Amino acid sequence: MTDQLFHSFDSLPAGITVPEAFTYPFFYTPHPLVELASKELHKYLEISDLRHNFGLGKHTDLIEQGKMFGVLVVRSSDGTLGWLAAYSGNLQEEAQGYFVPPICDIHAAQSFYKEGEIELNTMSAEIKAKENDPLRLEAISNIEERLKEIKEHLRKGRADLKEAKKARQKYRETVAKVMSELELKRVQERLAQESIQGQVAFKHRSKSWITEQEKLEATLKEYTREIEEMKEVRRAKSNNLQREIFDHYVFLNAKGEERVLSQCFPGFDLRHPPSGSGDCAAPKLLQYAYQNGMSPVCMGEFWWGSAPVKEVRKHKYFYPSCTSRCRPILDHMLQGLTVEENPLLTFGKDKPMPVVYEDEDLVVVNKPAGLLSVPGVDIEDSALVRVKHMYPKATGAILLHRLDMSTSGLLMFTLNPKANKRMQRKFIKRQVNKTYIADIVGTLEEDEGIISLPLAPDYYDLPRQMVCHKTGKPSKTRWSVVERMEGITRLAMKPETGRTHQLRVHCAHSEGLGLPIVGDELYGVIRERLHLHAYKLEFQHPTTKELITITAPIPF
Questions:
Q1: Residue 39: in which H helix or E strand, if any?
Q2: What was the pLDDT predicted at 320?
């Protein structure tokens, strides 16, 4: 194979077999071939002098930014097994002759994008120059100053009318006590005449002010209109350029079919794809393989470098492909390949869900790992559906809280509206105490602590959550060490808030414990299951007022 971007394996250990189906990219355990290719890519990254600051001690003069890399194991047209490499987005210095090229190199010197970008930048400079023109700014300042003077004249005139009215009213009330009815009538007629005369005089004085005000405001609006028209023209050109970019991203699939970026995203005209769509590692790898007659075998993506401030990323850890940018594209690009079945579709299937507590008001089940709390888009089987089948006479909004699909343990439901209303109030007021057991990767020196981190959805990669001190919602977790084992620390965790993935992020994020939960496929390293279990519920019964404590055996 002469393609310089096709990398042969240094050596293949005996016993490694080629998978029968291609990797399901959104939930996978890296195949040994992927791990082997990744280690070879690690070696290259460690010795290469790419001018990019990954946060690993090189090029500290550049902006620090770790990067997602991907490897695609392929068979070449002559049957040779090898691999391709790619990175998501851009590097501060492109690596020549090693990584597959972008699907659309919009940043090439003579590209349509560069020409459009130059035009937009020129228009932006013209708008800025117009906005900052000293003569224009001086004229606007003079107009605004004169408008302030006119408004003050009008305000003072109206205030004088109000004061005169108050004075007449006070005089009328004073003389009414000492004057006869006839005298009072004459006074009232005189005061009414004074009121009319005052209003006419103000109207006469203000007429010229109001006329001048209208002319000045029209002139000021014209200054603004000119800028707005320039901005609108630039906005239209920017939108056209963005649409042209989308149409230049043409994706292949294994059948040889093409689809542009806009066709991959339903409702494109209402909401454009996230920025960077089409520039992730996975689409680049598949595109190059299809274009060069290579057959995809398996794939994986790993993080290289320091973690972003908000996200949970670990150096050399594998991660699934992102959902917002990649899923719509890969749904097309994987057509024609035999792909592994989505494990999530059958993850909780046929797993028992025992009832650990029940009475006329409540039922508490021990949800197995892999079972949804409520039905999903593609999965009907869930704890809620099972409880409804088990208790067909249950009424009202019977679900009280949720557990992640990967989390096992205690899940409470109510069987009638009155109990539901009372228990919902207890959950809202945080009168239901929940204790989780979690095994984290590593050894904690401290025995207990509190984690407070604001959490927000990562809309580019749902269901992942991130730490955001600007938009995140407050979340708080108390933890204590239960046991220290070889390379693992078992914790009892008590969340005081109920944010999505709260315990998982609080454990994995660098501002939390910095140690992911064992088996966390989103924030750590995937294993047979996530070692997070809803172990204990403590609450006052909604009807009997009895203090109830329920536990579920730890399954790991």
A1: helix 32-47
A2: 94
